[in-house]
Amino acid sequence: MDARTSLWRGRGMQALIGVTVLGFASYCLTLASLPVYAVTGGAAESTAGVVTAVFLVVTIAVQAAIPALTTRFGVGPVLVAGLLAMGVPSPLYVLDDGVVWISALSAVRGAGFAVLTVLGATLAAQVAPVARRGESIGLYGLAIAVPNLVAVPAGVALVLGDQVGWLSWLAASPVLGIPLVPLLVRSVGPQPGPGPAGTHRAAVLAALAPSAVLFLVTMAGGGVVTFLPIERPDGVLATVALLVFGITGAITRWRAGALSDRLGTRLLLPLALAVAAVGLVVTGIGLGTGDTWVLVGAAVFGAGFGATQNLTLVAAFVRAGEGGTTTASAMWNASFDAGTATGALALGFLAAGIGLDWTYVLVAALLAAALPLASAAARVGSSVPQARQSSAGSG
């Protein structure tokens, strides 16, 4: 496949996008809506984030085991099991709105989500030539961002409209992706075998800095998607803000990949993080000054949020090298979900004390303080020699 051939035309890419859209539609439908569902069932607002936190804690725990599971059972069977675990329990949400029940179902779904996230990112790196890896990851990111664009606000609207039954059945969508798995697995060929001793540890260390940057920005994102609908439950502000957030995030996550193939990540990653910080400040200020500024802030934050996701994944793969792709994917995804869980839980307690507006401002300051880390994360140094063999797309 040369630079003039559209990656969209590859059957493997089409299968990857199909599986990803169906899997992440389930995740996005429930991400912001389940905490709202718990609050309508009588849960305290400060504990509503427990639902999301349980889902993501299980996800993080299982993600660490994915490389070993795929080595033993193969990518196809593990991916099918993950899609089943995400989709089959979802219709049962309608049975009870208690935090314990919602959390129990979410724990099972979290295990499936762990499989989808780690293998999805790994396959995105393998389904295209190395020189076009950023573009491939961008398309994979678009397949994630489109459900985020539509399903996050739709899920909130369904719960606020007392349509939990529809939400529950729509969240079973991952099972529809199972027929696409054989084509996807065939398109990437045999998976690389286990590397020499120390390869796993080296890949973890190589992916650490990009993953730390990702943790911070997803912590901020978790705080936005979880608590903005709770802070503003009346009217359409929260739904529109999440929609705007999703639109800008979808565009930048998609286009940042192809841009990184040409320009690298050294300048783009710190810039993306700075944009996210500015957007979060504006969102916080808007909560106290006017709805228009909330929407502006959500748009700007979404742009930085989407670009940072793509660029940190590209940087992690480049730094880890070909032999560390699956480990780097597990590390990156664990950081993504740990950040989202932290934002969904810890920021709720912080907001209960100082208000959501000041919480967003403080988190934005933390993002700004991490700009030197973002610069370091985009560099490939002598400590990651394997990455030099595949660094065509990195700065």
From TrEMBL:
PROSITE patterns: MFS
Transmembrane stretches, start-end: 12-34, 46-66, 73-94, 100-125, 137-160, 166-185, 205-230, 236-255, 267-287, 293-318, 330-352, 358-378
Superkingdom of this protein's organism: Bacteria
Membrane topology term: Multi-pass membrane protein
A single GO cellular-component term on record: plasma membrane
InterPro entries, sorted: MFS (IPR011701), MFS_dom (IPR020846), MFS_Exporter (IPR052714), MFS_trans_sf (IPR036259)
Record GO terms (molecular function): transmembrane transporter activity
Gene3D superfamilies with a match to the protein in the record: MFS general substrate transporter like domains
Pfam families, sorted: MFS_1
Subcellular location: Cell membrane
Domain Major facilitator superfamily (MFS) profile: 199-395
Keywords noted in UniProt: Membrane, Transmembrane, Transmembrane helix
PANTHER family for the chain: QUINOLENE RESISTANCE PROTEIN NORA
Protein name stated in the entry: Predicted arabinose efflux permease, MFS family
